[in-house]
Amino acid sequence: MKLGFEDAHTPYTSGSQSARAWTERWVRSQVYCPNCGSDSVSAFPNNSPVADFFCASCSEEYELKSQKSSFGTKVLDGAFRTKCDRLAASNNPSLLLLNYDRKQLSVVNLLVVPKHFFIREIIEERKPLKATARRAGWIGSYILLNQVPASGKIFIVRDGQPQSKESVLAQWKKTLFLRNEGLEARGWLIEVMKCVEAIGRREFDIDDVYGYEGHLSRLYPGNQNVRPKIRQQLQYLRDRGYLDFVSRGRYRLRSQV
Questions:
Q1: What number does CATH give the domain 15-180?
Q2: pLDDT by residue (tens digit) across 163-174?
Q3: Domain 183-253 has what CATH class?
């Protein structure tokens, strides 16, 4: 994988337009599909509602966000209602986040958030544009990147170093079981996954997860049986190979690679 933008000349005088042209061209020429491993992805026509790229082999779709600085806790995205309507759709796109070095004209980081980590809780509604704006009343959205568990942020390039394709495909495959669940069920599973990661140890006791009972109760106030729900989610994650059962009430988080 070459990280440099081979042709840095564009017809644009705007730096942001030039960067978009560079990064989109680079994705088309260098990025493989992390879902199926196909050697390349193709571009949608300009101004497609949500997605920018698709894989001709498996039909996975991708939305690209690129910028010079590292991505923070929130990622600016498109229309809020469109994003929410697409959450349960089979063609809801996965998200590619690309950081580039403007001076070196090269890619620094590229990570992908698989679409099965997109639930309503990670989409934040922005305030409507003011009446004086060209698109007055339009409501955009943020993607709350800090609400995605670490297993849902897969680096293809990290700190200027391409990651092995085998590792990327394995990490992607590890959480594909989430696609078999509806939005609400996925929400519970993802929240418990985040609790497990927050413990900070690969091996943990169920009581460690019970420590997040109050947090989960606030997220799901209609559920009056949070501890049984936690046990159910841990058993499901064990059955899907995300966790290993060590002994009664004790689990181990499997390696992410």
A1: 3.40.210.30
A2: 999 999 999 999
A3: mainly alpha
